[in-house]
What does this fold into?
Amino acid sequence: MPVKIFPRLTLIQKMIISFVVSSLFMLAALVYSVAGMGSMHRIQVGIARNDLAAATATISLHELLLAQERLVGKYHILRQPEFKELYKRNSAGFMDGLAQLRQMNQGPALDLLVSEYAGYAKAVENVFAAVPVSSTDLQLSAGRVERAIEQLRTEQKNALERKLKEADDQESRTVVISIGLAIGGVVSACVIAFLMIYSFASSIGKLQRATHRIAAGDFNHDPGIPFGDEIGTLAQDFSRMAERLKELEQISLDASPLTRLPGNIAIERSLNRRLRERATFVMCYMDLDNFKSYNDRYGYIKASELIKEAGRVIYEAVIRQNDPEAFVGHIGGDDYVAIVSAGKAEAICREIIRDFDALIPSYYSDEDRAAGAINGIDRYGVPRVFPLVSISIAALACHPGDYATAAEIATAAAEVKDRVKVASGSNYVIIREAGHHVS
It folds into this structure.
């Protein structure tokens, strides 16, 4: 037999899991898209704050360098001090630009630019100090600074392109993964819904077939639906219903056609069930006294009606005591059985006798009722006087372990009944312990 690792889920649990799975996919798509947009936003902010500002500063450095070249050239020719002051201002602006770029971590190209500009600045200082410097040397030094600026601009351009590509890749990943997660949520919801619908349809189909089979009288049919969810519980209820219908059918087939009370098979089943459950109960064996003489005098139609009414009286007396486990059966002829709880046995016996004795006079003629007896022939062919029909009840208390089978209980009750019938009129005896007589 396979071991169940996971319990079968109920319909509500399945629906909740379906909703949770779909919601998790959707939530993951939302979270990832928000995170992706946040990453792209940070890249864009970095480009705006660093790369564009660095590019602007680099362009400004190039313009400042060109201005410095012009001022140095003019000073080199005209030797006017104002050109020197203007150069120093431009040089200070250039150095501020370098400091700004250094804060942006521009890398090796910036270090080269700083080094080349330091050489150019030293050459210019020699010019201002009247140290002989050729125009060619100044131009070469300025050219090296321009090449360093151009290299820095190239690195900035490459870095910007990498960041833009990273932003594009991030956007693509965000779109693809977000759409994928959303589609995954929709697909998972559809798959779960399909599986649930298929499971429902399959189970309902099995229940429908089981209904048809049970309606056709196949009470042993198993719907084949695993227990666990509501449909499994319903299938289990179907099986129990079929079992009960089978019992009722057997009871109906076994029931007395006259009293409609369960017969011997049902009586034996009821006794055996209580014995299996080791329950304490009282088995009341009832018999009509002087019934044969009544049948001989009034005929089988009146006698049959009396048997029917006696069954009704016994059944209603038991029902009035509200004993949920009580059982009333008709053995056959004028013999009946009532299986009741120990605490209600005596009250039930009294009510049966009271109601039966109140009923009996109406089944006799005025003459026989006034006489309180009828003339008849006993079973040995001897004429004698018979009292009105009465009822004898032999009540046998059954405790766990007292009796092993229903047959043993029936034999013991029959022996008690013979003792009860010795007394005249309706009477009952309750045997509260095996082997002891207490009335």
Notes: The longest strand covers residues 281-289. Confidence is low (pLDDT under 50) at residues 1-6. The chain has two domains: 11-188, 257-438.
